Amino acid sequence: MDQQDHLMSRGARALGRHMPGYWIVKTEPSTYSYDDLARQKTAVWDGVKNNLALKHLRQMKPGDQVLVYHTGDEKAVVGRAEVTSEPYPDPKQKDPKLTVVDLRAQGRLPRPVPLAEIKKERAFADLALVRIGRLSVSPVSAEQAKRLMKLGGLK
């Protein structure tokens, strides 16, 4: 989220309204792929252990939009989802710091957007996906999310 998006979203939340946030979540498709999420329709997004990624996960709100990125050999944004729950403690773990959210699949992008293509665009220079490659949950500005969806074949 860029500074303007963050301030607008924070202001809307202070007034009791929620402006959707935009996020990128990463998954290794051999472990859990976007197609798995689409088949299940909804899923608990778990397995996040990095402190910064957990901080981002705790900021998610119902209605936020999520772009799903496949790591490994694919390295591409492949699908869209929506946050459907407030963050809550991971029911499978004893550590109360570990947090999860529920996601609902919204559809595969008509065309995957490879990381190499993302890195070529100046608009994505400050994107955490580019700057902090190992981070599994990261915010993205509304403009960047819309541009990624357009590159993925959505209007």
Report the sheet with the most strands, covering strand number, pairing sense and barrel closure. 7 strands, mixed
Find the structural class using helix and strand composition: alpha+beta
* Number of H- or I-type helical stretches: 6
Could you give the distance between the termini?
21 Å
Q: So, CATH architecture?
A: Roll
Q: Low-confidence parts, pLDDT < 50 over ≥5 residues?
A: 1-15
What's the quaternary structure here? single chain
- CATH H-tier superfamily: ph1033 like domains
Helix content: 25-40%
What is the beta-strand fraction? 25-35%
What is the global morphology? globular
Explain this structure:
The structure is a single chain. With 155 residues, the chain is an alpha+beta fold. It has a single domain, classed as ph1033 like domains (ph1033 like fold), CATH 3.10.590. Helices cover 31% and strands 29% of the residues. The protein has 6 helices and 7 strands. Strands 1, 2, 3, 4, 5, 6 and 7 form a 7-stranded mixed beta sheet that branches. Strand 3 and strand 4 form a beta hairpin. The protein is globular and about 40 Å long. The N terminus is likely disordered.
